[in-house]
Amino acid sequence: MGSPYHRMALVLIRGWSRLVPGGRRGPWIAEWTAELAEAAVRGAKWVLLRRALLAGRDAVAVARLSRPRRRGPSSDTSHGGTSMLTALVEDLRFSFRTLRRRPGFAALAIATVAIGVGANTAIFSVVDGILWRSLPYPAEERLVAIWPAQWFSKREVVRLQEEATSFAAIAAHTTGGLTPITSGGIRELVPGLQVSADYFRVLGVPPLLGRGFEPGEDRSGRTDVVVVSQGFFRDRLDGETSRLGETRIVDDAARRVVGVMPADFEFFGGDAAVVRPLALSSDQPDFDGRFLQLIGRLKPGVEVAQATEELRVLAARWTATYDYNTNWANGADVVQLRDSVASGIRPTLLILLGAVGLTLVIAAANFANLLLARALARQSEMGVRIALGARPSRLLRQALTESTLLAVLGGAVGVALAIVGVRGLVALLPAATPRLTSVGIDGPALMYSAAVTLFTGWAAGLLPALHLSRGHAVGAMQAGSRSTTAGRSRHRLRAVLVAGQVAVAVILLVAAGLVVKSFWLVTRVDPGLEVDQVLTLTVLPSPVINRDAASLEQYFDVLRERLAALPGVSAVDAIHVLPIGGGGWIMGVSVEGVPPTGEWDGGVYWRPVTPHYFRTAGMRLLAGRGFTEDDVLGSEPAVILSQAAAEKYWPGVDPIGKRLRIGFVGQEWLTVVGVVADVHIVGLAQAPPAAVFAPYRQAVPALAQRNILQRVLTLRTTVPPADMVTPVRDLMRRVAPDVGIVRLEPMSGVVYRSLAERRAIVIVLGAFSVTALLLGAVGIYGMMSYWVGERRREIGIRIALGAGGGRVVGLVLGQGVRMAALGAGVGVAGAILGHRVLSNAVYQVSTTDPVVLGLGPVVLVLIAAAATMAPARRAARTDPLETMKGE
Amino acid sequence: MPVRLTYITAVVLQALAAGYRYGFDIMDRSGLPDGTVYPALRRLEAEGWVTSDWEDAKAAHRRGRPPRRYYRLTPEGQAALARARERYHALPALEGLEA
Q1: Residue B1 lies in a domain
Q2: Which residue has the higher pLDDT, A75 or A877?
């Protein structure tokens, strides 16, 4: 009994014995134990294992025989569990055998299902992980986002916390930022958030160690504490509980580590290694920068609608007290937190989900078609079986078992494909997509794939199975299989399936055509600045180096000169955020002589730049002057408007010399000295928003006061900018080791990243439509091959009567093309009916673009013709004599 | 008819008649696929053509193995075997102890 094989065999026996009814189980185990002992002595190892495996069959037989049964037909007809099980085992064995005999058919069917299931599982897991999965916080249904599309100032947060009564707690947080950590003189940037004291209470997750923030720790003077992630604690404090309470230099100030969050805690607002408190204050000016977002936990019993209503009333009251345009008046909005997450990418994901659903329809239709073709080929076999007394229900079950087996095999391959596919999808989506880390093939995704697999197996298997089991015993046994009425009806069924596939493929093709055309148009949009010869270097300097605004600028002047001295660099200027991607501040504007209406007009993007930034970045000055070295503190405050801003505030009027006030910068009037061409700040596909540029030297006090230090050095290069990445990094390490590099990439990379979401749609829809085309072509080919086979006699007679090869080819081609054209027509109608779905994903293309709508079906009909060519040629080569002999 | 006198059934009956009395032996000597012997035995036992008893535990222990379950033909089984021999003339003549 010593060998591992023997032990394994005994384990198997124990397992099987579960099938044996209780009273007989003991003797059954004893008998097989003896058998295995015999086999262990006399047989080879594999004999032992094989016997142990076969014992399962015996267990089933014992179970079946020990069921009480009445006299009469054998238990084969009963529907009890065990006999079903036996039948299933038999059916499965039979299916395996028949599939082994037709490996080509099996491979094609498995591949078809694998494509459908794989694509669906991959997209499902992405959509589920990002959109549907509930957030990992206790009682997350009571968590809400407050004005999810808006940004708040510190004072607004304090006011809201004091006055709103619908919430158990309201917390403010920054999003997706970097925090400098200094240790041993080295300055590093790690992901970090700033939050108000209630942040962890709102989310409802207690720290793993230590504590969260106490009330009041988000007020000036008490913010010298920090809560860290478990990873940070492990890496920087060796995971030693005793080191909790140690002090670290975080964001250039000494702060005590008071708490560690659990490893699986999902920081809301962006990944974070360190979380430090905001310094909230109610006496900061109202027009201060807005950079906070708000989350809240509703009091028990309070509905989202009630909270919304309360905030509407508050907002209306506050708006009256503002002397510049605010976003408070823009309607209040409270939404479930889980709906606010990823609301931006939701339309894209839903489009992909729709497309993958259509792909599944095509795959299932193709699978059904393959099964049907096979069913037709096995007609005589079934006829014989029925004639010999097989019950139709038995044949139906056998056929369904076979289609399910194929589907399950395909599903397994599909899951493997999905594991690869999900990685690709995650890489395709914008890196800033929320919750991307919770995307993966896990329990729900596997359950979904199992459901899709079984659905495919049964839905696609049922029609052919019914056909098979109905058997048409007599007709089917006619060896010549002349086209009977029954044959024609089956042919019609296949034609409908194929035409349906074509229709869905046309929808996908049209959708892909629309997004591809949109993408092409977007990439041709002039972003408003130089893309090819510019390198961007986003930095976050330490405030220690620059105690005051003047020394900060001096420091950067020197740094810019050193960078500009690099061979390959012709100029270096700075702006405070990347010019494309929608970062930075949106400010309310007051125009001199125009009383505020109290309504939020969308504001302007406010961007400080160094004097020659426009030239270096390749932006065009349209009117007035650019900034000069003389635009410094003390001289007249100057701004330059984007064309969109000029048209927004002074439509039809020359804005040069006019004055405006900008909330964030303060209450002084700023004079417009120039107008520059628009830049697509938010994204290439979005209309360029209004922007106001200010000279750095005049804006620096406002920035420094709020400790806003990040800036984007913009290098004009004479060589490909990618070649300058390493020299620039080396230089920075040498001359400015305490300046953290946030990002170093060519401007083309910035533009490329900004198109990530659109690119994802194009690639995924493109892949799906190509798949749909291929599956459609396979379907048409299979169907026409069969059609030709069935009409060999008719074709033979035609040829015998003098029809030329061309006419036969025409006959077959006509048949295939007619069917495809019918499907394509339905598809175009479907595309027109559903055109609104894509309205968010297209750019300057109508969702009923006639060119795309026309091209889609043409492509499909051409492919259909190509797929029909081979069967048509074969038909034309038909030897009339041969077909006659066959009769 | 609950138990059909299939070829496999017939061979199992024949093997039992030839004195091969437990599963391993029957599989080994009859040349039947090993997955078929036990289910056939179960059917035959349920039909009353075959009965079984256990090897004496002490005797088995002396030989260093678990007790075997021995099968043997009932009179009905003998009759069935006779019918089977009529039907399957090529039934293998298993060399046995008391054939």
Answers
A1: no
A2: A877
Write out the residue range of the structural domain in which residue A693 sits.
543-737
The Cα angle at residue A401 between residues A395 and A405, in degrees rounded to 5: 150
Inter-chain residue contact B67 with A39, CB threshold 8 Å: no
How high is the pLDDT of residue A618?
93
The residue that leads in pLDDT, B28 or A528, is A528
CB A683 within 8 A of CB A754: yes
Q: How many CA atoms lie within 13 A of A316 on its CB side?
A: 5
Per the CB < 8 A criterion, the answer to whether A258 and A226 are in contact is yes
Structural domain range at position B55: 7-87
ipTM over 0.95? The verdict is no
Whether residues A290 and A366 share a domain: the answer is no
A38/B24 CB distance under 8 A: yes
Could you tell me which of A664, A747, A742, A657 has the C-alpha nearest to residue A699? A664
What φ, ψ does residue A343 adopt, rounded to 5°?
-65, -25
**Predicted local distance difference test score (pLDDT) of residue A498:** 85
> Which CATH number goes with the domain that contains B43?
1.10.10.10
Digit-coded pLDDT (tens) for A466-493: 776 665 544 444 444 444 455 666 677 7
How high is the mean pLDDT of chain A? 83
Least confident segment among A185-194, A450-459, A525-534, A755-764:
A185-194
| CB burial readout A853-866, b (16+ within 10 A) else e | beebbebbbebbbe
Quick one: average pLDDT of A302-312?
89
Structure confidence at residue B99 (pLDDT): 35
pLDDT at A284 over 70: no
Domain boundary among A311, A340, A369: A340
On whether the CB atoms of residues A584 and A576 are closer than 8 A, the answer is: yes
pLDDT of the residue at A419: 92
CA distance B84 to chain A (A): 20
Q: CA of B31, closest CA in chain A: separation in Å? A: 14
Nearest chain B residue (CA) to A66: B46
CB pairs A-B closer than 8 Å: 55
Domain finish residue from A16, A48, A66 = A66
Tokens coding A797: 């007679």
Average confidence (pLDDT) over A520-524: 89
Residues A364 and A279 in one domain: no
**Count of all residues that appear for chain A in the document:** 887
Q: What is the mean pLDDT of residues A21-25?
A: 83
Considering the domain boundaries, does residue A836 fall inside one? yes
Nearest CA in chain A to B46: A65
Q: Are strands A604-609 and A691-695 parallel, antiparallel or unpaired?
A: parallel
Tell me, yes or no, whether A451 and A384 share the same domain: yes
Whether residue B2 lies inside any domain: the answer is no
Residue A791, domain member (yes or no): yes
What is the C-alpha separation between B18 and B94, in angstroms, rounded? 6
Residues of A265-288 as b/e, b for ≥16 C-beta within 10 angstroms? bbbbbbebbbbbbbbbeeebebbb
CA gap A559, A554 in Å, rounded: 9
Look at residue B90 in the predicted model and tell me its pLDDT. Answer: 66
Domain count, chain B: 1
Question: How many whole angstroms from its chain centre is CA A396?
Answer: 40
Total domains present in chain A? 4
Mean pLDDT of A20-39: 85
Q: Give the separation between CA A324 and CA A604, rounded to whole angstroms.
A: 13
Query: Which 8-state DSSP code applies to residue A664?
Result: T
Most confident of A26-30, A178-182, A622-626, A700-704: A622-626
With cut-offs at 50, 70 and 90, classify the pLDDT of residue A549: low
Q: Give the contacts of A530 (CB within 8 A, at least 6 positions apart).
A: A617, A618, A716, A747
The answer to whether position B93 is within a domain reads no
CB contact under 8 A, B67 and A34: yes
CA A212 to CA A861: how far, in whole Å?
Answer: 65
